[in-house]
Each structure stands twice: as C-alpha cells, then as structure tokens.
Specification:
Structural class: alpha/beta
Number of strands: 18
Strand order of the largest sheet: 11-10-9-8-14-6-15-18-17
Strand content: 15-25%
Largest sheet: 9 strands, mixed
Order of helices and strands: HEEHEHEHEHHEEHEHEHEHEEEHEHEEEE
Shape: globular
Length: 364
C-alpha cells in the first residue's frame, strides 16, 4: 500500500467515526474520492443510515469522479434495497479504483461488493488500515456475527471502587471535565443503558447534552419487574426521546399499559436463575437494530455483564475521593472464590481528565 492510500483511508475512517451512534443498524462509513492527488468528494453515511457515504461523495465529485479513486472505510454494499448497490453506483460513476480496508460481514455483501466492482472493470485494493476499520465497525460486525451489540461499560467511581455513599448519594463523584467526556462517549453509541436500580435512585435523563446532537441515543433501562416510577424524567420525556425498557416475561399488565401509554417501547427478555438474562437482553436489543450500547451501571447490571463476558470495553473514571466500605460498590457480587475465575482485561488507554483519571480496558 502507498503512503497516499494510508493517508486517504485514514481520512475516510475519521469521517465514518463522526457518524458513530447516528447510523444504526447500518455501519457509519466514510468515503473520500481522489483524482490526481486532489480530494473531489467526501462524505459519511447520513444520520439514520441513508443515504450511504458513497453516493453522497459521488454527488460532490460530479464528473470529476470519472477515473478517480474512491477510499471507502468498508466494502461497498452489493444488495438492492431502497437504493441501488453502492458498488454499482461507484462503477457507473466511472470510478477507476476502490480502496477499502476489509470485507463487509453482512451476508448480503461479504465479498460481493468487491466482486461486482471487479466485474465492472474497477480495480480493487483491500487491507489498508484493516485493524482500525475492524475496531470502528466492531458493533456492526458483532450484531451480524453474534446477534448482539458491542457493550461499553462505564464506571465513575471513587478511589476505593464506590459509586455512591450508603444512602445512594452519588452526584458528583467525578468532575465536570470527566462528565463532559462521558457525554461525548454517549454520543458515539446507539444507546445508553442502565439498570432499574440506577433509574430509581438517580432519576436520570440519559441524554447527551451540550454536544449539538439532533438525534439522541436510545435510553435503555433493564428492569426485571418493570417497577419503575412513572413520575420520573424518563417517563415524562418518553414521547420525545426514545425509551426502551427491557423486562421479564411475567410483568404486571397494568405496568405494561402504563409505560406504553407514556410512549416507552417495551422489550421482553428471558430469565436465567430468576433474573433477566443479560445475554438475552442484548440479543433483543440487537434484533431491534442496535450495534453499540453504552452501559452506565449500576453495580448489579455491571456484574451481570462481566460475569457473562459481555463487556467489550470497560471505561473507568476514577476520582480522588474515598467513600469507604459502607458505600455502594461499582460492581456487584460475582461469586468468585479464586482469581483464576476472574476475567483479565487489556489496558488500551490511560489519561488524566481534569482532576480525574480515565483508564480504558478491552477484553483480551
């Protein structure tokens, strides 16, 4: 691969990242069209998943697309839907070469886009920044391959691993810079998820604030019995901002009717040992199109996700405060008696944010 291939693919990837959280169930793709070393068109997948990046970039390029190279952050689609396949659109526009990092794992594509391009006489190069592209599209791939979205678990906690005092008071453990960073993370995910205990204790909105978003993430609450207060900010805003509540199969019919009445979308899931099966919850969310979920606790939900090896990324915001053993732990009981049974995560980032420290871990 040439230095220019790397440079323009890096730009295509950066464009795609700007749309994370806005395009589900479609991937957020970036496309850069280059002719004679000059960028003549660039775009990313539009909010809501359509139009795709390629026709938007081609519209910018116009006639300059003929004989140009298109750098696309994922294999162009090959299936007919509301619009023609992007591979066909690129070929018909006269694109001479397409550079992409890797194949699309969607069975409707999965190499067919590259084959369609080659059949039309378009040169295809793949493998450029493939590892970076895999990370960017991990949620899209996870949903296709495993039927669930990727999960980022965020914990904001004291030095001694507590998320609240014994009375449940938790505002604020971390500082304003860390909280703003969390809002930016929310914005890059399709949904923000909490357990029912957190929803009852904190009365949160779970929205992204001060980021200029026009499309808010879905708010997801996991509540086995649907025993959430109807006099809450979540209920009051359910008609305007999507609210999905994951519950067990045997909830009270009156509660179902009440939450549906305020505009919530109810998502039933199976039980395991008397509790909601977190794997089933995530598969249900995947069936509804979510690819990236940002979980903000509480301790019981965090423990359940970790115990089932369902956390793809763990973000810990540590504050310089000690709460003591009587405080609420960031992670609930895991039932471990030996360290060999504990999951080992891999540190991928460590940085200071204001007066707090953020460390990011990924599954090994």
């Amino acid at each position: 691969m040439s230095a220019d291939d790397v440079r323009f693919m890096r730009l295509a990837l950066s464009l795609g990242r700007r749309g994370l959280g806005q395009c589900w169930p479609n991937p957020s793709v970036g496309c850069v069209i280059v002719k004679d070393g000059r960028i003549v068109g660039r775009a990313r997948t539009a909010p809501g998943g359509r139009p795709h990046a390629e026709p938007l970039a081609l519209a910018q390029a116009g006639q300059a697309a003929r004989g140009a190279t298109a750098y696309v952050s994922l294999e162009p689609c090959a299936h007919h839907g509301a619009t023609p396949p992007c591979a066909q659109t690129l070929a018909e526009a006269g694109i001479a070469r397409v550079v992409a990092p890797l194949e699309d794992s969607d069975p409707r594509v999965c190499g067919e886009g590259f084959a369609m391009l080659r059949k039309a006489g378009v040169a295809v190069s793949s493998g450029v920044l493939a590892e970076e592209a895999w990370q960017d599209h991990a949620g899209f791939f996870r949903r296709i391959l495993d039927g669930r979205p990727t999960v980022t678990l965020k914990l904001a906690m004291s030095l001694d691993g507590r998320i609240a005092t014994a009375t449940g008071h938790s505002q604020w453990i971390t500082g304003p810079q860390a909280r703003r960073a969390v809002h930016a993370m929310r914005a890059r995910h399709d949904a923000v998820m909490v357990g029912g205990g957190t929803a009852r204790a904190d009365d949160p909105m779970l929205t992204v604030r001060d980021m200029g978003l026009t499309r808010q993430p879905v708010r997801v609450v996991v509540s086995r019995r649907l025993d959430l207060p109807l006099i809450s900010r979540l209920a009051q805003s359910a008609a305007e901002i999507p609210l999905w509540i994951c519950h067990g199969p045997d909830v009270d019919a009156a509660r179902v009717a009440a939450w549906q009445g305020v505009g919530a979308d109810l998502v039933p899931a199976a039980l395991s040992h008397g509790q909601l099966d977190t794997g089933a919850v995530l598969r249900a969310l995947g069936q509804k199109g979510l690819t990236r979920v940002f979980c903000e606790g509480g301790g019981a939900l965090a423990a359940s996700l970790l115990a089932e090896d369902l956390v793809d990324e763990l973000v810990v915001m540590s504050a310089g405060i000690a709460i003591g053993a009587e405080g609420l732990p960031a992670i609930g009981a895991l039932g471990l008696d030996r360290l060999t049974g504990a999951a080992r995560l891999r540190l991928t980032d460590l940085q200071r944010i204001g007066e707090d420290v953020m460390h990011i871990w990924q599954r090994s």
